[in-house]
Specification:
- It is a single chain.
- By secondary structure, the chain is mostly helical.
- It has 2 domains: 18-167, no CATH class; 179-224, no CATH class.
- It has helices at 21-45, 49-68, 74-82, 93-116, 122-141, 150-153, 179-198, 200-204, 216-224; strands at residues 18-20, 90-92.
- A two-stranded antiparallel sheet has the order 1-2.
- Helix 1 packs antiparallel against helix 2 (49-68), helix 1 (21-45) packs across helix 3 and helix 4 (93-116) packs antiparallel against helix 5.
- The protein is globular.
Length: 225
Amino acid sequence: MSSIFKFGEDVEGYNIPVLNEREVRAAAGLLFVMMFVAISTAAIKQDFSLLKYSIIIFLLDFIIRVFVNPKYSPTLILGRLIVRNQVPEYVGAPQKKFAWAIGFSLGAIMFVHLIVVNAYSPITGIICFICLVFLFFETSFGICLGCKFYPLFFKEKVQLCPGEVCDIKAKQEIQKTSAAQVVIVLVFVAYIFVSAFLFKDNFSKQPYDLFGIDNPERSELQKQN
């Protein structure tokens, strides 16, 4: 029974339970895509059915992760299958449990608010945004935002963070950012805003079929407008 209800796995050479960060990131990517599509559908089409199904999936997955065993989480199982040929990257389980407890809490609030009460409000919008940000940072950058709050509530030192960010070390040359690179990013951002200003009228127009393949009459009318 103790092997079923357990958080993290024992790996030789590590003094604390660990998780495979590669599986975690893959699972976060799956959840991000699901939630992004569901939230976009609700926001654009005002159709909340897909979001309600997604919340049920999200909440159950996190209940299994936090209260049973991450090894039995459906999305983490899928993540394990996806990255099965990659070398594991072990990270500490305690901070992940805390982060996923935050995810469970957000999912529970959404479940009550949107499914039980069947209502939406700025609260649901804010929680959806937070969930997307957390999932995006995890899957894209390998940054566990929930883990950042772990030291605020627990005194023990965080161990085995993704990318070894817990360890104090000097940056290698390839990790440093020069002033020229910062300027390039700023110019790139300015380019986006200038383009949006100069071509705002073109962006708002519906493009026409250049060769009139789809609908010749409609294409000609759009071209004239």
